[in-house]
Design brief:
Number of strands: 12
Helix content: under 10%
Shape: elongated
Strand content: over 45%
Number of domains: 2
CATH class of the largest domain: Mainly Beta
Strand order of the largest sheet: 1-2-5-4-3-6
CATH architecture of the largest domain: Beta Barrel
Largest sheet: 6 strands, antiparallel, barrel
Length: 173
Amino acid sequence: MSGGESLLAVGKILRPHGIRGALVVEPLTDWPDRFSAGNKLLLEKAEGNYVEVTVESGGPHKGRYLVALDGVEDREGAEALKGLFLMIRAEDASPLAEDEFWAHELVGMEVVQEGGEKLGEVAEVLLRNAQDLLVVEALDGSEFSIPFVKEFIAEVDVENRSIKVTLMEGMAP
């Protein structure tokens, strides 16, 4: 399969676990059942080149997931997948609730203080257990983080690619 269609990353393979081909996966999804036995995922072998894989088994392990994929039989095979992403087709994604956003949608959005002052652009979204963080590249090139919570995020305008924020003094450079 080629990468012509819209895909979403649901996990990143961090490293092998043990000698039988298990993988430690950093979940990039709020729906960890994607790593359940029998599910089909797309493995990004190279940029734009994906192969479908079947989850043999999967479950939580120390804040991450241990996943076994069909055809990955040993540590050497698992080591070859280190750093690769597990993806799904966008049309297979679960629908979002109101005021929920895909992390990839937020990257590149302009960040503006409620009064209109431009602060920078979202460079990255860090998905954390307690709360997600927007990493913003400021106009001067420095970076700062904003917790993605209602206290600081006044409005997300996907159509106009902007995020209005209300920050406490000292949060932005």
